[in-house]
Amino acid sequence: xxxxxxxxxxxxxxxxxxxxxxxxxxxxxxxxxxxxxxxxxxxxxxxxxxxxxxxxxxxxxxxxxxxxxxxxxxxxxxxxxxxxxxxxxxxxxxxxxxxxxxxxxxxxxxxxxxxxxxxxxxxxxxxxxxxxxxxxxxxxxxxxxxxxxxxxxxxxxxxxxxxxxxxxxxxxxxxxxxxxxxxxxxxxxxxxxxxxxxxxxxxxxxxxxxxxxxxxxxxxxxxxxxxxxxxxxxxxxxxxxxxxxxxxxxxxxxxxxxxxxxxxxxxxxxxxxxxxxxxxxxxxxxxxxxxxxxxxxxxxxxxxxxxxxxxxxxxxxxxxxxxxxxxxxxxxxxxxxxxxxxxxxxxxxxxxxxxxxxxxxxxxxxxxxxxxxxxxxxxxxxxxxxxxxxxxxxxxxxxxxxxxxxxxxxxxxxxxxxxxxxxxxxxxxxxxxxxxxxxxxxxxxxxxxxxxxxxxxxxxxxxxxxxxxxxxxxxxxxxxxxxx
Length: 484
Hints:
The protein is an alpha/beta fold. The chain contains 17 helices and 18 strands. The chain is globular, with a radius of gyration of 22 Å.
């Protein structure tokens, strides 16, 4: 998370950044580990901060938003991880808080009966356990040519491996001529049923057109479920950043989003001018032109410079003058939009023995920190597995809250899945924590809105009770105790 000062208002904003396109794994000549992901972000961070330190007063006049510092967005979780050796490699590069990661076209891709089966297991093992579950969202990858086997592998990846989306690569898997075939459509329909996004590689406008048609076909096949709509992301925006058709005919579709990796140089202002001008006049855009654009890097296949150029442009007066956009549009592009599309992990094993909500309210930050330390200690001992950390957001992703988060938990002993909802009001020194059965998460939105979010109705339905330190362990391990 980077703190930005708005020169127009002197207000300091917390800007949350997510890289929505990042590869992990090993190809013949490329290897990218989680530690490499964080080092990549660290290099971007160091460049941007040092660059602003060296800018002259005249050069600074170009910028509306000035970086002040970078800090972890969830320090009340991360401060207790020093005893994990791998955390030293994860606790850097906090300019980018989180990243969507999926397999490269890696050395394991075709070593199993169905392509990417081992690769997906590796991604799951990384992204659903500490410390990387704090910073990485894992997406599955399959080869549609595997037909029914690919569909089953994808289903398993979402329901069992707790991955959060799907990556398809028509060129690497050589199905670009079958992009509108039944094998691909069945996968996008299945993704829609699971409510997860699908990011599809596109290097030309012709491919982007076909992806839009794929989204339309998918929507027609799942119309029986009004709550399930396709969420299709065109990787690299089809590398058509200056083509008006990308905006007027493709991104204007309600089911389609554009991811920006490979956007660089003089294409950046052109892209944003066309996006704001054309999408700004489309009536069916749910909020604004900026709700359709998602930031990504395509690392390690692309280098730091493109991300640096893109981020620094968003801080300029040029971005404001070209688009009329300010901080909230920037936040949508850099994190809010992808967070709107990624659902909570799929839970398929409801807890039979305990369907109660357990609630604690602290009015002391020391008590709250001791409680959070107890959670992290249980996780580090292997008693609890923290599958994911999910921030609540403002409407249309215009705000990302680091004081309202969902921790998805797996209890190793009882094999029960539960959810921890943390809601912090620092101005009132109130720290509320709810331990919720996983099945109650169904229907809960990411939007932190008291009128819309089912989470807040829990406040009205359950009486908060004070819990002393001797009961913290019992609170945390309630499922294991019941199942003994």
